[in-house]
Amino acid sequence: MAMQKPLIGIVMGSNSDAERLKGAFEVLKELEVPFEVTIASAHRTPKDVANYAKKAKDRGIKVIIAAAGLSAALPGVLAAHTTLPVIGIPLEVGPLKGMDALLAMAQMPPGIPVATVGIGQAINAALLAVQILSLQDPSCSKKTAQYREKASKKVSTARDALTELP
Ligand code: RP5
């Protein structure tokens, strides 16, 4: 997988966000979907954000996932510089616990959409990215179905293990 060209680009606003994105990294590794991770900040390194977005498509990236906390402009700014789909993950950071980031990502001006997942929902962002890839790549569709089958089995195994009400 390390040799494969990344299809998903994950951009985080700070190195301090990495821990909160572990779920996304794990899912993409499990599904063997090649991805890359970088750090760029809409406020601290705005030129890097614009450059990343502008070059992503030509580099073969198909979907961008952008994660940030606080007043999180990152996914919106990336989306402004590319026609690739951008998925935003608002992170639970600071006194407002991610509500500020959620509103900044979800309430985009018409014309520049960001597909925003729930606060801290890194796994869903990764799965949504794989589902977008599946439009062109049937193997991604199969991987999504297998992931769901596994999740479904987990629930039924837990149900079958219930001998009495907890
Ligand atoms: C945001 O500010 C980052 O995405 C991070 O969630 C938050 C705090 O960043 P650090 O001060 O920890 O670098 O831009």
From TrEMBL:
GO BP: 'de novo' IMP biosynthetic process
UniProt: substrate binding residues: 14, 17, 44
Transmembrane residue ranges: 63-91, 111-133
SUPFAM superfamilies on file: N5-CAIR mutase (phosphoribosylaminoimidazole carboxylase, PurE) (SSF52255)
Biological pathway: Purine metabolism; IMP biosynthesis via de novo pathway; 5-amino-1-(5-phospho-D-ribosyl)imidazole-4-carboxylate from 5-amino-1-(5-phospho-D-ribosyl)imidazole (N5-CAIR route): step 2/2
Keywords assigned by UniProt, alphabetized: Isomerase, Membrane, Purine biosynthesis, Transmembrane, Transmembrane helix
Top-level EC class as recorded in UniProt: isomerase
Catalytic activity of the protein: 5-carboxyamino-1-(5-phospho-D-ribosyl)imidazole + H(+) = 5-amino-1-(5-phospho-D-ribosyl)imidazole-4-carboxylate
Highest taxon, organism lineage: Bacteria
Protein family per UniProt: Belongs to the AIR carboxylase family. Class I subfamily.
Role of this protein: Catalyzes the conversion of N5-carboxyaminoimidazole ribonucleotide (N5-CAIR) to 4-carboxy-5-aminoimidazole ribonucleotide (CAIR).
Name of the molecule in the record: N5-carboxyaminoimidazole ribonucleotide mutase
Organism this protein belongs to: Acetomicrobium hydrogeniformans ATCC BAA-1850
Gene: purE
